[in-house]
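Example with several molecule types.
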Amino acid sequence: MSLEKVSSNKAFGGQLVKYKFKSETLGGLNANFNLYLPPSATTSKVPILTYLSGLTCTEDNGAQKGGFLGPAAQEGIAILFPDTSPRGAGIEGEDDDWDFGTGAGFYLNATNPKFAKHYNMFTHVTVELPAVLAAAALPIDFTRQSIFGHSMGGHGALTLYLNSLYHGAKQYRSVSAFAPISNPINCPWGQKAFTGYLQGGIEEAKEKYDATELIKKLKSPVNILVDYVCEKEYDEISALTLNATQGTADNFYIQGQLLPENFLKAARDAGYDEVQVRVRSQEGYDHSYYFISTFGADHIHFHSNFLKA
Amino acid sequence: MSLEKVSSNKAFGGQLVKYKFKSETLGGLNANFNLYLPPSATTSKVPILTYLSGLTCTEDNGAQKGGFLGPAAQEGIAILFPDTSPRGAGIEGEDDDWDFGTGAGFYLNATNPKFAKHYNMFTHVTVELPAVLAAAALPIDFTRQSIFGHSMGGHGALTLYLNSLYHGAKQYRSVSAFAPISNPINCPWGQKAFTGYLQGGIEEAKEKYDATELIKKLKSPVNILVDYVCEKEYDEISALTLNATQGTADNFYIQGQLLPENFLKAARDAGYDEVQVRVRSQEGYDHSYYFISTFGADHIHFHSNFLKA
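Resulting structure tokens for the full complex:
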């Protein structure tokens, strides 16, 4: 698991470093990730926040477009940006679709023998990457971890967090998500992924990889923030920019891929209030990084409350 | 010159809108640009800051990666993001190199007959785009304009600003640049561009398109901010991230493409002090958008002083 530095860029007084290493959990393939170390990492170990990106993304999208690095520098928090799937496994069909296979690992451990050697992003993110960073003696305090993500990565963040709590491990202190796939057993993206990656299909996923199902059976306190976009907004500024009848919207919400209300309802039914599970509708935004960057600082500050408590 | 809306994204409470139109100055080709309108544009006309991007870029790079939109929303400033060249002129050889032709218009008006019909980014940015926006009745106050840019776009920003002052037009109140090509008649990129686009070659460029030459002959007050990166920095945080012997750096500075010291010396020789021409060396950064985004808010605030005066 020896780490190789691919590139580094100074940003907001800290360093964004891209590393690669041969990943055992991904079947021996090379895996890339980015790590942002804030300026304060020179004087003490810093807490770490993992950002999981969405379908088709790599370790770069969040680092380049999320607007996270400035707030993380201010708060003294490291950010880990993993990739979204193994790359180059050579499995038949893995590059055919944008929503399955390469770029679409869904942060699970595959049990279908066809994918089980390589598609293990769950263990890659929760176990292997922290171990690799620790082995490289990077200045990170692994007793202080949180996680967030976007879309498929929002699904990943919620399910990794909830699984950890459910199994008593408490690896992450808090979780947040932008427009997460919130109830994947009931949406086309999730059904396709689970049917493909898991021997037990949707039934297997229901136990392990569905945030709405997981929150139903949880008893412990949680710290959850979700931002999503449910409606187009017809506002004055849209009217000013031509095509006055159209606001923007999250088309994947409209298609029923995200289902955040299902997660919210399950959380409320399980007794979680607005303090523990905060779900906010942000009208007029869409599924893009323009939406994410607008609320990026807000999410960093949310996690900072717990990481620095 | 009728404007067509290609897409829009809500960001930081405002709207980023991509438009296209048939550009007369670019020989009748379709031209794209992005316009960010801050939330305050719904209640009053707002000042406008033009951002010129560097080699190989489009109208998207600055909007996605610059970190400008949040500060512009706060300050109530619109940002115009033009493209970097005409697209699809069909001129022999225009797509052969990344530093000449498509994506490399150098913000000049070509006089070489081969390019003169299409490569007129100078007039496109200074005259045509403001006219197109005004004709669409967008809520912009064109008496309050400033300009900034990166690398080739830093060259563009400086030369458009200085030309405007030199000819008494005062179109822009202030200019800033990240790692600008500051003395292009003396660097390989500039020499290649000027020899290719201009009938009079480097002699013609010396009169019109070289910031260092232009500042020498200027008498009027100026408001100029330049950030550049002259040195690798071997600091503690680089040491922590493996390969302890390497900091980051701006490789194009090292290659002699930027020459900001020439501009600084010319400005001081012409009598401009640190208040009017502020040139800052930011050590340890590089030529990327990680550098730009680190100082993006700073540049917006610099321009805000003049745009809202």
